[in-house]
Amino acid sequence: MGRDARPKKSLGASLHSRIKESRVLMVGAGGIGCELLKNLVLTGFGEIHLVDLDTIDLSNLNRQFLFGMQHIKKSKAIVARETAGKFNPNVKLEAHHANIKDPQFNVKWFKGFDLVFNALDNLDARKHVNRMCLAAYVPLIESGTTGYHGQVQVIKQGETECYDCNPKQVPKSFPVCTIRSTPSQPIHCIVWAKSYLFAEVFGTSEDSSTELDQGQNEENAQEIANLRREASELNSIREKMDSPDFAKCIFEKVFGRDIDRLLSMEDMWKSRKPPTPLDHAKVLEEASGIGPEVAREDQKTWCLAENYAVFADSVKRLSQRMLELKAKAKEGDAPPILSFDKDDEDTLDFVAAGANLRSHAFGIELKSKFDIKQMAGNIIPAIATTNAITAGLCVLQAFKVLRNDLQSGKMVFLAKNSDRAFNAEKLAPPNPECQVCGVARVSVEANIAVATLGDLIEKVVRTELGYGEDISVLTSQLLYDIDYDDNLDTPLKELGFEDETFVTIVDEEEGEGVVPRANLEIVVTHSEELADETITVPEKIEIPRKPKRSTAPEETTGEAIKHALEDNEDGGVAKKRKLNDGLTFIEDRPNKKRAVVPDADADLIVLEDDGAITID
Amino acid sequence: MASTAPSGMPSSKEKKYDRQLRLWGADGQNKLEASHIALFGASAAGCEILKNLILPGIGRFTIIDDKKVEESDLGVNFFLDDDSVGKSRAERTAALLGELNPDVEGDYIEDSFSNLVATKPELFQPGWTPFTHIIVVSPFNTDDVLKLSPEIPTFLVHSIGSTAMLRISASTRCVVDTHPDTLIDLRLLNPWEELSAMVAEKTKDLGIAEKDGGMSDHEHGHVPYVLLLLKFLEDWKAAHGGNPPSTYAEKNAFKDMIRNSMRMDVPGGSEENYEEAIAAVLKNIRAAEISSHTKAVLEDPRCINPTPECETFWIIAHAVREFMNRDDQGAGLLPLSGGFPDMKAESSTYVALQNIYRSRARRDATFVHENAKAVLRKLGRDPELITLDEVSLFTKHANFVRRINYRTIAAEYNFPPDDFHKKAVTSALQSYNAEWNPSLIYDYVALRAWQEYYSKIGQLPGEDDNYLDSDIREQMRITAVDYLSSIGYQSNIDHRLDQMLQEIIRAGGSELHVIASLIGGIVAQEIVKVITSQYVPVNNTVIFDGIKSRTSVFEF
Ligand SMILES: [Zn+2]
């Protein structure tokens, strides 16, 4: 019996040959990715492309078995190809050490695949691939795990829900005043230590950090101004980095004087427990005799003196690194900075001790370094077993797709529940209100250096497609609406267009008996060959009208669903998802701005990425 | 003196295992590292299971297999390469799997399961065996697995075409750290003195407007919802003959009562703490109930009469039982978990309230600890054997502890079958419905027929092309029907059985890599649960259908 004999027998000849002829793309070569690639190679998929930007880290090795110690810091995509490729010489493997959002991976490139697998770890890239697959009409198998939980979903334009049909949990952000002035939970102090203290002393300063919600109002404008001043004072302490008193300088400023200043704002503490400034001399004395090795006890909650010892020692280590970087820097180089990395012990020690010292001053519970690492680094637990199960389910769903049998495709949820390993549900149809897949699509070509926004709107949108006056045109920003026509004469390139750009047209026509068109997504591809402002439109298409809005159910419906859930805690993930579905109707009317831009900034708020499902 | 060497560097092992330590902690990891897993059958499924155990760092593994590597193995087993063809399958897979993790020691024995069971019984004897856990992957003879000791945790695995099955057998598992979704227990219907005192203090001006000397809007909007609920419960009870709201209608009326005292003329039109209180009514206004699992533990003879040799689990369970029975301790209630939710509150009030729950939990754990010491003394054991930490872990999970009595494999294969087995299979067959309850019970019946065919004939059904599939199917169908009548099932047999027989015969005993990989994940997950004594392992059979991506769990 040859290598192929067994798979052929079990799968049946026709599916087996379809698998052999298929060309698939795998985005992400992490935990699920390693398993998936192994499965795809051994199942005999004809041609597999993998894309991953990451390099291999020690903490990957407990599950990403295509990598070994000798591969640390190398490209995941390239090493995965080398390791897995050996196991089936008949499979063509191509690896790209690149970002899937790079322009080379355009809609045309996606169209070259029969199937795409998402094995990603972040919301932003997932949403991107979802959109590309929808635009290219390529089926997508989306997957993710966290701890013992996992999820697999088949997505196809027009036939199933897409990744964005259900709103995703938005990462949490904190008001700047909570972080800087009135913390009440350990996480507030951890964010403070990481995004403020560390950034000001060793990294890039606050204005460029996005973890804080800078939204301000009249009321706290004064306080924000104070905080700005405080930050720049701290930033200037950097100059004393080569002084033996550097740790003392930082300590006395942030745990002494800054807290005294906060205390002086009596209004703030009328109904809150006021903080207590820390006395450097006293803490220093208590900490004498505590060696830096206490930092190794990462499961223990350190006392004040131990936190001080770790703080002082990590300041010493980080300053030393900065000074070495400075010494090496050439003239004209940007001043060196350090950035927080949960796996970089020096930075983690500084943040852990800094957060705990602040917690101490504010009477907040202290945390162990182990816990702080998880909270500061947005760590998602990950193990081999869940990845193996999830990747296996991805391939089984791929079989359905290759058989053109989406009817029996499934959305599968994995739970740690011992009564059943997982729940499978029929695939849901697209959400007609979804702003990502519920759009009409058309592709055009233009020379973006010459053609203007006015050309696009007049020639394509109005003349070819028959839109009226009242429309909005958006990319990641609003380009045009009836009250904003400043950009009409601007060439597309100057409006941020690239080789391939998605433009959304929203029909704003309103009135008695008028049903506006569904949103239209135009993919504008740049073409050097077009010498003038001509824009080529392939064929005339009919833009469907918006689906009739479902009338919002009375509020009690939402309540009733909630109760059903509360009373049935064993509902599992599946039920919860249904709950979300039910509640989406209650949301506001879709907002066109939110519609087009899957909030790109959201991902930068690092604390709690994408909630339930995240892979590694 | 200044050194840039990071003094806080954890060992590289901790770094490597960081992502899983967050699931099972150092204790779970130590237990993993102390295990020695035997794998009988270096099939694709077997190797995938081991892969998922070697990666997280078990201590040792031994692979037992007597076959030589064939070219067709390469198409399904990732842990064999071109150079392996013709060599010992045990040796080659042990070598390639061993490369996955230098911290794990690997070994192999080139021999068959049947032969070892017959010639080296000491390998399978509790007290003698070097193996802590045994995995046996099909094909195996039923008679051979019946010789395995029920004391050693054993995992029987089938992976045939699109179908896979796991059967777990082990001595009783006692799990404390079950990782329930929540440990929060507010005891709203059983407040104690300190809690009631805080309610009185923090809610005394609740109904008074600020202008009349009552609370400011800020204070009113920051009374923690737990205190609100306790306060309104007192009011409710006063008006209802001392009874708390119990029916759905009463709970709704209780919610209205809370809603009516919310201040509406505040920014946003409502108060978050009141909203939280209303949302918590259905879930939290209920009598402290003891879960059926905990009851099973407390009623177990091992709990009622612990012995000088028994596990500490039973001593602590006994101490908890005593705690509940004593009026000066639990007075009928389990020890408090101490779990406390987040809520809208001033941080100082929140911390004070949280401390009331925590000190109560600590008080309860200390009582249990004292009881446990007394039992140890009475049994002539070291009274310091059980630490307060161990007791606290138990009392924290008191309502979630599990005792799993695994049925033996012999009990499942008994002829004639025992009543438990008969009832389990018959009731699953009776409730089967292709539309709305498509459980995998017929897959089980088909796999039993497969197992019997192999054990009797020594050949995989469908493996030899000289036999017609239809003949084999007929033969297996007769076996299946015989089995069904042996358990007393005479009713109608669903078409699913024939479908399944056809499926597994068509596979001819061949594995499909993706199914092997998937069941490899499921089996390894259960083994990790059993080794670490954390989370609740399956009791005792899980079947997977790769065509519909479904699983069923049965106790046979
Ligand atoms: Zn959608």
Automatic annotation (TrEMBL), chain A:
One of its GO terms (biological process) is protein sumoylation. InterPro entries: ThiF/MoeB/HesA, ThiF_NAD_FAD-bd, UAE_UbL_dom, Ub-E1_IAD_1, Ub_act_enz_dom_a_sf, Uba2, UBA_E1_SCCH, Ubiquitin-activating_enz. Residues 313-373 form the Ubiquitin-activating enzyme SCCH domain. Gene3D superfamilies: Ubiquitin activating enzymes (Uba3). Chain: B, domain 2, Ubiquitin-activating enzyme E1, inactive adenylation domain, subdomain 1, Ubiquitin-like 2 activating enzyme e1b. Chain: B, domain 3. ATP binds at residues 28-33, 52, 60-63, 76, 121-126. The keyword Zinc applies. Coiled coil: none annotated. The keyword ATP-binding applies. Residues 11-436 form the THIF-type NAD/FAD binding fold domain. PROSITE patterns: PROKAR_LIPOPROTEIN, UBIQUITIN_ACTIVAT_2. The active site is at 177 (glycyl thioester intermediate). Residues 445-529 form the Ubiquitin/SUMO-activating enzyme ubiquitin-like domain. Pathway: Protein modification; protein sumoylation. It comes from the Eukaryota. GO terms for cellular component: cytoplasm; SUMO activating enzyme complex. Keywords: ATP-binding, Metal-binding, Nucleotide-binding, Ubl conjugation pathway, Zinc. GO terms for molecular function: ATP binding; metal ion binding; SUMO activating enzyme activity. Zn(2+) binds at residues 162, 165, 434, 437. Belongs to the ubiquitin-activating E1 family. Heterodimer. This is Ubiquitin-activating enzyme E1-like. It comes from Sphaerosporella brunnea. The lineage of its organism: Eukaryota, Fungi, Dikarya, Ascomycota, Pezizomycotina.
TrEMBL record, chain B:
Pathway: Protein modification; protein neddylation. One of its GO terms (cellular component) is cytoplasm. Residues 17-114 form the THIF-type NAD/FAD binding fold domain. One of its GO terms (molecular function) is NEDD8 activating enzyme activity. It holds the Pfam family ThiF. It comes from the Eukaryota. GO terms for biological process: protein neddylation. Keywords: Ubl conjugation pathway. PANTHER family: NEDD8-ACTIVATING ENZYME E1 REGULATORY SUBUNIT (PTHR10953:SF29), UBIQUITIN-ACTIVATING ENZYME E1 (PTHR10953). Regulatory subunit of the dimeric UBA3-ULA1 E1 enzyme. Belongs to the ubiquitin-activating E1 family. ULA1 subfamily. This is NEDD8-activating enzyme E1 regulatory subunit. The lineage of its organism: Eukaryota, Fungi, Dikarya, Ascomycota, Pezizomycotina.
